[in-house]
Write a sequence for this structure.
């Protein structure tokens, strides 16, 4: 029988690192119930609470090894294991970004424990600093994710969807201390307020607003590059703290799964909304109106204030056609409309449009 990476857990727990069992790849597909449709094959935890179940306890790990002998292995990052990881992604120009960082801060920034990922990238592993570092995607540089508090990485010798194995470049040893200049760059990047991917949630989300607000939040997290498991964890937390009453867990998992189908990074919410427009069988006129509204929308809130005359002019449609399609789009759940007062000329009303993800 194939022996999974989870059987190597003691290599990590001996270093004080907490581990979790990760779904593996069998017959070219993920071992989770979604199989070939899984958006994160061989990379998401098998346990109910994800990275929150990470442990060094021998008894728990032994049970996982018995229950899922072929599982991949995940390593918790941040204070839990005392490590900070830079995840270099080959598909999004991570190596080019790493080269620029090396030029700026010196080649020694890569002198630490290093793993080659199954997808052709790298994991640079450092000792966790005293300062709190967030788990975020692409803030330091394109193609470089920071894995720390609340995050995890897939560890060697796990199997990637490509069939390749995660491996330690020069064996496993104690990680180096992260260079001060590089740490400073990470902290500085995380202190900047995002204007393109952040979606703030109100302190209380009332019934009737929960699905749309949480999906917008989940979409923004995907825009930042988070995987489905991380999105699920964040949604479950916000659902309990903010939603009155909370949505059922099954609905939260559905929202996370839907958001995880989108591409990562790029323009955050506007990009995700554009994908939603393109992937739905709306009429060409409706799509023109949504495109026009999106061009006027705020990146964080997706609120837009163009007059219907402006929409008609920019979309090339007649004013009556715009009015008719806006009513239809509102009924279908694509936009919310609030009347904000009369236009400056005194003729007609000024409206606020909020682009919403349809149910």
């Amino acid at each position: 029988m194939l022996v999974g990476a989870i059987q190597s857990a003691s290599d990590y727990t001996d270093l004080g690192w907490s581990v979790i069992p990760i779904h593996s790849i069998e017959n070219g597909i993920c071992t989770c119930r979604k199989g070939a449709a899984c958006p994160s094959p061989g990379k998401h935890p098998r346990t109910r609470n994800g990275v929150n179940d990470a442990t060094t306890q021998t008894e728990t790990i032994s049970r996982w090894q018995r229950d899922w002998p072929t599982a991949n292995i995940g390593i918790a990052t941040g204070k839990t294991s005392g490590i900070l990881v830079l995840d270099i992604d080959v598909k999004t120009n991570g190596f080019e970004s790493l080269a620029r960082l090396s030029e700026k801060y010196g080649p020694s920034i890569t002198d630490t424990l290093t793993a080659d990922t199954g997808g052709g990238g790298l994991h640079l592993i450092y000792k966790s600093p005293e300062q709190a570092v967030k788990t975020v995607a692409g803030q330091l540089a394109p193609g470089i994710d920071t894995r720390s508090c609340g995050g995890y990485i897939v560890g060697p010798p796990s199997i990637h969807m490509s069939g390749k194995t995660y491996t330690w470049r020069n064996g496993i040893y104690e990680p180096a201390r992260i260079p001060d200049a590089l740490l400073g760059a990470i902290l500085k990047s995380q202190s900047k307020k995002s204007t393109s991917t952040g979606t703030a949630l109100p302190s209380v989300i009332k019934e009737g607003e929960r699905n749309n607000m949480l999906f917008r939040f989940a979409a923004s997290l995907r825009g930042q590059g988070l995987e489905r498991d991380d999105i699920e964890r964040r949604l479950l937390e916000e659902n309990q703290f903010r939603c009155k009453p909370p949505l059922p867990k099954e609905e939260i998992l559905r929202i996370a799964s839907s958001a995880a189908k989108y591409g990562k990074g790029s323009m955050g919410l506007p990009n995700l909304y554009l994908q939603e427009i393109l992937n739905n069988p709306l009429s060409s006129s409706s799509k023109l109106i949504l495109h026009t509204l999106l061009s006027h929308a705020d990146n964080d809130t997706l609120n837009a204030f163009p007059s219907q005359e402006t929409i008609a002019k920019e979309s090339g449609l007649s004013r009556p056609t715009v009015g008719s399609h806006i009513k239809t789009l509102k009924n279908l759940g694509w936009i919310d409309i609030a009347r904000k007062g009369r236009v400056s000329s005194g003729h007609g009303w000024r409206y606020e449009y909020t682009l919403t993800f349809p149910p």
